[in-house]
Amino acid sequence: MSKTVLITGASSGIGHATALRLAREGHHVVLGARREDRLNALAKEIHDAGGTADVHRLDVTDRAEVAAFADAAVEAHGRLDVFVANAGVMPLSRLDSLHVEEWDRMIDVNVRGLLHGIAAALPHFGRQGGGHFVTIASTGAHEVVPTAAVYCGTKYAARAITEGLRLEAGPGIRVTTVSPGVVESELADTITEPGAKEAMRTYRAATMSPDTIAGAISYAIGQPDGVDVNEIVVRPTAQR
Fold this sequence. Notes:
GO molecular function: oxidoreductase activity, acting on the CH-OH group of donors, NAD or NADP as acceptor
Family: Belongs to the short-chain dehydrogenases/reductases (SDR) family.
Keywords: Oxidoreductase
Pfam families: adh_short
CATH class: Alpha Beta
Shape: globular
Number of domains: 1
Number of helices: 7
CATH superfamily: NAD(P)-binding Rossmann-like Domain
Protein name: SDR family oxidoreductase
């Protein structure tokens, strides 16, 4: 069954791959990110392949923008079936480097952005009697490594918040946390601390395609009614 799927952070990486895969599978995707030029190029690729997509410039740290993102999809398509909260940033650094502005940015995007997505989606899910919320967390939601204290803290928070949503949501609402390991993406490009940047080069020696994570999302949302895939962890085989 075709679903209306909203994806934040759709301009690159996992969000981009998820949009392509779900559109190929017949779903209507609603693309949100700050880089509207990339979204337009992605939408064209989807349309050229016979799929359907809408584009919305979106900053997930702005609660009103996220609410408008969800409201516009419902107005245009009648419902919101799946909200994929994918937007995230990862400027890693040691705590004693005191990159406080970067810490704040991770909290704003990775935690507040997730909460804004939940606040935008839940009223629609409640009126419809169902829906599916998917959070893209990280293996950093299961372990802490040097230079990643704040990033992992935000991902632990994302995992906890999403589990809380699952426990509180009505039986018609499905909730999934997908925790990727090392994925080919632009996430590491925002690292400014030289030591963390060098460590990440080694850490990212073995990566997965973002389409691997798109496949996990497709699996979760493709389950029949009454089946709720709560958590998926996907790592490269070489990652320990």
